[in-house]
């Protein structure tokens, strides 16, 4: 059987390592700078951005690995948030420290089963079906008032401590920002390792030519459903963090517009690097906040900005950064040649 080489060019590998190093240094500087010099508004924006970036991370991962676009990832985000409400309530049979991971695992399992069904579809059909599923979850959340509080939402009964951390820390902007950065960093490195495994390379091969992978004897549907489930688990993690930080959950987080915002973040950040959607989430939040102070038509300006970024840098912020870093070895080579 002929083997397809998956080796990357040395320059591309170097640019990826440099971009990873820059991201780590930027995160360390950001954590230090926010604690010392950040205003309350800035820290609040960063906390919101790190929470929603988990959702954008899930959407971007699905695009990156499977080439599929989801308009319904607000559903796992909302299920994670409402699952947190139940895990922290007196009706929960298990301690919150056990219940919260089980919430993410339950959402992952549900969307794995859903993925087994909808993974047959591609392109617009897949996107529209995810949109329908997301809106079905939104309608269910507004109708079942006994469970979700309906349109009024539900207030979370926060415990005094969670995982040995006081609840006030989790509901403070800086505390949630640190927790969010730590969790997403762990997720980032886990996914970075997973991409280099045989299953990770096989998932990319399915994206490129699923029919040929089937011809080689692989069952593609299970792996596609697995990728869909992992992307949903990231969104569910964001929902758990959202519920812990806000202490309140309403059906608004299940609406399709929230999924659309996450998709914009993923496109803005780009999916050429794993960290791209996270960068897109931060850019989206600060653009939104800055434009809202200048004009009431900030959505139109944001849309135009997104179009310009897509035209100038089709691979988004991460693609632009990697393009610039790929030129670094050439610059050093020119310097040595003089």
What can be said about this structure in brief?
Keywords: Cell membrane, Membrane, Transmembrane, Transmembrane helix. This protein has 338 residues and is mainly α. 76% of the residues lie in helices and 2% in strands.
Protein described:
- By secondary structure, this protein is mainly alpha-helical.
- It has one domain.
- Helices cover 76% and strands 2% of the residues.
- It has a two-stranded antiparallel sheet. A two-stranded antiparallel ribbon has the order 2-3.
- The longest helix is centred in the first third of the chain and has 28 residues, at 10-37.
- It is globular.
- The chain starts with 9 loop residues before the first helix and ends with a helix.
Features:
branched-chain amino acid transmembrane transporter activity, LivM-like, mainly alpha, 2% strand, two-stranded antiparallel sheet, 338 residues
Judged by helices, strands and strand pairing, the structural class is mainly alpha
- Residue fraction in strands: under 5%
What is the N-to-C succession of helices and strands?
Answer: HHHHHHEEEHHHHHEHHHHH
What's the overall geometry? Answer: globular
Instruction: Domain count, please report it.
Output: 1
What is the CA-CA span between the terminal residues?
48 Å
Helix content class: over 70%
Runs with pLDDT <50, length 5+?
1-12
- Count of separate DSSP helical elements: 16
Number of DSSP E strands: 4
Main location: membrane
Pfam family, one: BPD_transp_2
Subcellular location: Cell membrane
GO molecular function, one term: branched-chain amino acid transmembrane transporter activity
